[in-house]
Amino acid sequence: MQTCQLTTRRLCLRQWQAADLPVFAELNADPAVMEYFPRPLQSIESDAMANKCQQLIADRGWGFWAVSLREQSRFIGFAGLHQPSADLPFAPCVEVGWRLHRSFWGQGYATEAATEALRFAFEELALDEVVAFSAVANQRSRAVMARLGMTDTRANFRHPDIDPGHPLCEHVLYKITRSQWQAAHS
Ligand SMILES: CC(C)(COP(=O)(O)OP(=O)(O)OC[C@H]1O[C@@H](n2cnc3c(N)ncnc32)[C@H](O)[C@@H]1OP(=O)(O)O)[C@@H](O)C(=O)NCCC(=O)NCCS
Questions:
Q1: Which pTM does this prediction carry?
Q2: 140: CA distance to ligand 1 center in Å?
Q3: Which CATH superfamily is domain 6-185 in?
Q4: Which helix (H) or strand (E) holds 7?
């Protein structure tokens, strides 16, 4: 039995549990999952990230939720909302983000979870705007942004946490406003 904060047709978005940590460590160690990040994470780093997500959800009631399949109660990764602490040129902002275990790519789960996260952002948090960003070459992630109805601002930026000479430094910035969301979902 799992307690979901948000549900979609196939997914449960919920608080993190200790049992999620080994699967999260496995996905964060996968070079394919981490292709557009500077490097895969070690399990201690993965655990720290899960614990931080858990703490932020406990503190404010929303965040990067653990995502599990409703039918099997199986943890598949995370999706949700986050206020980035990096010194981003468009901060302060709330981003929508996602990271799934590779065995669960290609089934529409990231888009399904993120659609619900955006509904929460606009209908429950009443935010004016949500952003998403990724390395320029991260086409799968950019495809999720496009499916969500987000617009490529074409205001690419250098991620402040990545070495300026690194090929992953240049990022795209997508946005969706509450009025755009409402127009698409009324
Ligand atoms: C980014 C990431 C979550 C995208 O995963 P994804 O599987 O491509 O995206 P979705 O879950 O939305 O699935 C969409 C795909 O499922 C297909 N699909 C299959 N069944 C579907 C269904 N029932 N409903 C909707 N789509 C379905 C779609 O056609 C689409 O396929 P395509 O990619 O061949 O066009 C994944 O690649 C990932 O975790 N990457 C590593 C982490 C990362 O880069 N995160 C972003 C950092 S900014």
A1: 0.97
A2: 6
A3: Gcn5-related N-acetyltransferase (GNAT) (3.40.630.30)
A4: strand 6-7
